[in-house]
Amino acid sequence: MADMRKDRDTALDALLQEIVTEVRDTQYLTGRASLSPQVMLALRQVPREAFVSEKQNAAAYLNLPLPIGYAQTISQPYIVALMTDMLEPGNDHIVLEIGTGSGYQAAILSQLVKHLYTMEVIDALAQQASDRLRRLDYRNVSVRTGDGNLGWPEHAPYDSIIVTAAAPRIPPALLEQLKPGGRLVIPVGTDHFSQDLWMIRKDSGGHLEEKNVLPVVFVPLIQQQDRS
Length: 228
Ligand code: SAH
Prior knowledge:
- This protein is of the alpha/beta class.
- It is built from eight helices and nine strands.
- It has helices spanning 2-25, 27-30, 37-45, 77-86, 104-110, 123-135, 172-176, 224-227, and strands spanning 66-69, 72-74, 94-98, 115-120, 141-145, 158-163, 178-188, 195-202, 208-216.
- S-adenosyl-L-homocysteine (SAH) is lined by residues 72-75, 98-99, 101-102, 104-105, 119-122, 125, 147-149, 164-165, 219, 221-222.
């Protein structure tokens, strides 16, 4: 038991070190040389092995996306770290995530914001993530099954919105549900092997400023009309 914990700590230290290096190496694209100490702490505190199946346990602290069933994946830790940092989360923020998946990104954000609302289109994944987050005692997260293209208007506007699946274009509902001064981080593109991670900022006058940050690989954001 003690040995297992030691192995886990060693693997986690190595992963965090790898993230630090990759963030530094991609600074020329992202404009970020390092992550905030709060984001680093959240990455240390959330047990990624609890968000993957037992079969994937040995790989939980590798800097890799992993399968979570239903043809979906838990994202690569570096990209979770980077996107979380790009949101510049604050402890009074109300945040929306589209693409709950395993619930890992949600757990990371829950450590950094006041409340996280997260939507998942595959009901079984939403149920699993919701049960898992409750079991692990992440209380400031609400999970809902639904099409993230429409956002979650009941709790809008949001201080920030993170989309963890690649959209063919930016869903207008998400721009509407963003607060003035807020940030939307979203992968955009239809190529399965490469999309662009965009950062959209809405200024205090409601004007949008868009920046293409770096190439990424995400599963596609499902369009409800494709499912019927
Ligand atoms: N953030 C997740 C990784 C998500 S993978 C994690 O930390 O594990 C992308 C997820 O987006 C998948 O679970 C997929 O089912 C979900 N998804 C795809 N299209 C969606 C849509 N239109 N609305 C909500 N969720 C969607």
